[in-house]
């Protein structure tokens, strides 16, 4: 069985301190093939916030895959936001544009859907290019046929129906279709601060979008939470762990059929 921890939107600088430490305690118990953070490590992209995030990541076991979110571009340092929006992330956390992990039975590719500036008023929304999708699929295609294939983004590529906020990802639907039809099993995201699981309406419904909640005080009607993902040969379980104020306990569980190897393209 493959076990993943999927966290998002910790927002250091505005984190729920007790919930963040509670999540760390679970991670330190071990047994995870990979810990994934799908963006928004910081609140304002400040250096001190990145340093706190880096220290926290160093305090929990690896391996880890961390991608940036829209809050990880500096909010106040406009010159950096325009000319090097993810320079701080790259310097203090890791690669910003793409991240990869390959392990036994597992292949994970992270894509950056955040942008420092955009030709629209709300820069917090997402973008993904066809080139990004092609590069992700080319890398994932090289994994063994039986491997669980996972893409990680910050913004949900297709809107969650009834969600507390939107991602409005330019190119999102085309990317979701390409990933689903290209054989990806899961597309993990954050941004909306609420956990969800639902199948993409592409590629025979074999690919599932999975959203993680937040570990910050920026709650949007859902308690601080993160996901535990357990993948077996025929089924994938996603357990959203909700913070009770003193500990995490299961908030909601989804069980979805896993894509069959002979259902993959090529």
TrEMBL record:
InterPro entries: Calcineurin-like_PHP (IPR004843), CNP_phosphodiesterase-III (IPR050884), Metallo-depent_PP-like (IPR029052). One of its GO terms (molecular function) is hydrolase activity. Gene3D superfamilies: 3.60.21.10. Belongs to the cyclic nucleotide phosphodiesterase class-III family. This is 3',5'-cyclic AMP phosphodiesterase CpdA. Residues 2-195 form the Calcineurin-like phosphoesterase domain. Keywords: Hydrolase, Iron, Metal-binding. Pfam families: Metallophos. The keyword Nuclease does not apply.
């Amino acid at each position: 069985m493959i076990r993943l921890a999927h966290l998002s939107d910790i927002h250091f600088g505005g984190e729920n301190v007790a919930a963040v430490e509670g999540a760390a305690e679970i991670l330190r118990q071990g047994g995870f093939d990979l810990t994934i953070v799908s963006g928004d490590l910081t609140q304002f992209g400040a250096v001190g916030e990145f340093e706190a995030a880096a220290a926290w990541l160093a305090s929990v076991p690896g391996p880890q895959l961390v991608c940036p979110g829209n809050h990880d571009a500096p909010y106040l340092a406009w010159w950096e936001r325009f000319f090097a929006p993810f320079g701080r992330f790259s310097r203090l956390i890791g690669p910003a544009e793409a991240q990869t992990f390959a392990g036994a039975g597992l292949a994970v590719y992270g894509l950056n859907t955040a942008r420092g500036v955009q030709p629209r008023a709300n820069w917090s929304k997402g973008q993904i290019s066809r080139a990004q999708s092609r590069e992700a699929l080319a890398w994932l295609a090289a994994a063994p046929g039986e491997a669980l294939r996972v893409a990680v983004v910050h913004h949900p590529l297709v809107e969650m129906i009834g969600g507390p906020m939107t991602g409005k990802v330019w190119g999102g639907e085309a990317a979701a279709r390409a990933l689903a039809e290209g054989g990806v099993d899961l597309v993990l995201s954050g941004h909306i601060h609420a956990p969800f699981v639902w199948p993409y309406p592409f590629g025979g419904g074999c690919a599932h979008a999975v959203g993680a909640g937040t570990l910050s005080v920026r709650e949007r009607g859902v308690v601080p939470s993160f996901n535990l993902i357990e993948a077996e040969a025929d089924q994938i379980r996603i357990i959203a762990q909700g913070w009770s104020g003193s500990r995490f306990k299961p908030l909601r569980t989804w069980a979805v059929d896993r894509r069959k190897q002979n259902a993959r393209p090529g």
